[in-house]
Design brief:
Number of helices: 10
Largest sheet: 8 strands, mixed
Number of strands: 18
Bound molecules: flavin-adenine dinucleotide
Distance between the termini: 44 Å
Order of helices and strands: EHEEHHEHEHEEHEEEEHEEEEHEEEHH
């Protein structure tokens, strides 16, 4: 029977980062099992690639403080580009309560060591993006080290180096069952059984199904998110940051020769819905033209728009660490829209917990533990896009 020191279920950006960080910690007998014929067919390949440290809670900010510098140094360390573009995230406030919210978050961000973040006036916002309708803008916030990465390139970079160091990747191999075997596990896969002492669930939106194979109840729900790329458009600069209209959550960033438009439709309901809904285009264009009047002239090819799944948890924070009652079964799930930006920190945290039982990436990793739901100790993140 095949044996692995650590078996990672799911070969997306999170599984790949965990594999790399484990090999970095000296653990070589790592096996990633991925059911698709190639990596990135889950949420990773659908992502907007945004990275930011402008969050409202300590664990999310601290995970970004590990991940963003990691992305900046990615090519130097791994020999593969992350395509990190520090063009910033600019939150645009239209109500006094938005400004208070941004100021409160910024105090926490700065206390944890985030530099390059500050409040900006309406004039500064308009200077950065003159095409915005600004009559109702009160100000906002900007962090210059926030920006974008290429999730696919990052995933491939992590996997390639982990593989060079001895980690294995089995593609087209579904995990179908997990059984206790003494102090370890026997895992059924499409390529036959694997014996291991340590399993990491990195199955993205399918995390709940994988956890249930080990008898773990994991509150992760898939939620469809849709993105609309525009055709080439040069009436707005391609050097602008990610712009977030706090009035309704509409946000956009430059992508290739056009722009990538995003909006969280509040009427969306959980489920494995991966088809793009064409009526979404009209809804998002209405919000786009409201904030950026020249976007009225955007050309859209509906065939290029896509949908993917967020992996939502009840408190919009990821679930990291050992599952209570199932020794050796670790979770790296429920990123609630932040799995690309937090993949480096997640890899480091999981490798730390597996090899040493503790981590310094966040002050208190137990607040992210799967045990928090049964104890009723939920976190609260409001800066969710
Ligand atoms: C439209 C959209 C926009 C987003 N924008 C951003 C963003 O701007 N910034 C950001 O940080 N995040 C963003 N996200 C979220 C981010 O993409 C995810 O959080 C992240 O990709 C999760 O990575 P993962 O590796 O955990 O999951 P996935 O990439 O889904 O990988 C999980 C893998 O597990 C495999 N798998 C599942 N079950 C099994 C099984 N039984 N056996 C074997 N393999 C299995 C799947 O095939 C899959 O490849 C976005 C997501 C969407 C949908």
């Amino acid at each position: 029977m095949e044996t692995a020191d650590v078996l990672i279920i799911g070969g997306g950006i999170v599984g790949a980062s965990i594999a790399w960080h484990l090999t970095e910690a000296g653990c070589r007998n790592v096996l990633i099992v991925e059911r698709e014929s190639h990596q990135g067919k889950g949420s990773t390949g659908k992502s907007m690639g945004g990275v930011r440290a402008q969050f409202a809670t300590k664990p999310n900010i601290q995970m970004s403080l590990y991940s963003i510098p990691f992305y900046a140094a990615f090519e130097e360390r791994l020999g593969q580009p992350s395509d990190y573009r520090p063009q910033g995230y600019m939150f645009v406030a239209t109500k006094p309560s938005h400004l208070e919210y941004l100021k409160t978050n910024q105090a926490l961000q700065k206390s944890l060591g985030l530099k390059n973040v500050g409040m900006v006036s309406r004039e500064e916002i308009v200077e950065r993006v003159p095409q915005l309708r600004s009559d109702d803008i009160l100000g906002g916030s900007f962090c210059s080290t926030d920006g974008f990465v290429d999730p696919n390139s990052v995933m491939v970079g992590f996997t390639t180096v982990a593989h060079d160091r001895g980690a294995k990747l089995w593609r087209s191999t579904e995990v179908t069952a997990i059984r206790r075997n003494g102090s370890g596990f026997e895992v059924d896969t499409a390529r036959g059984p694997v014996s291991t002492k340590t399993i990491v669930n990195a199955a993205g939106p399918w995390a709940r199904e994988v956890a249930s194979m080990a008898g773990v109840d994991l509150p992760v729900e898939p939620l469809r998110r849709m993105l609309v790329p525009t055709e080439p458009f040069d009436s707005v600069s391609h050097a602008i940051p990610m712009v977030i209209d706090m009035t309704n959550g509409f946000h956009f960033r430059p992508e290739s020769l056009g722009f990538l438009l995003a909006w969280n439709d509040p009427t969306e309901t959980p489920g494995f819905k991966e088809a793009f809904e064409p009526t979404f285009i009209e809804k998002i264009l209405e919000r786009a033209a409201d904030r950026v009047p020249c976007f009225e002239n955007l050309a859209i090819n509906p065939k290029r728009a896509w949908a993917g799944l967020y992996e939502m948890t009840p408190d919009h924070h990821c679930i990291l660490g050992p599952a209570p009652g199932v020794e050796g079964f670790f979770c790296a799930n429920g990123f609630s829209g932040h799995g690309v930006m937090h993949a480096p920190a997640t890899g480091k945290i999981l490798a730390d917990l597996i090899t040493t039982g503790k981590t310094a990436v966040v002050d208190d990793v137990t607040v992210l533990s799967p045990a928090r739901f049964a104890k009723g100790e939920l976190l609260h993140e409001t800066a969710v896009l």
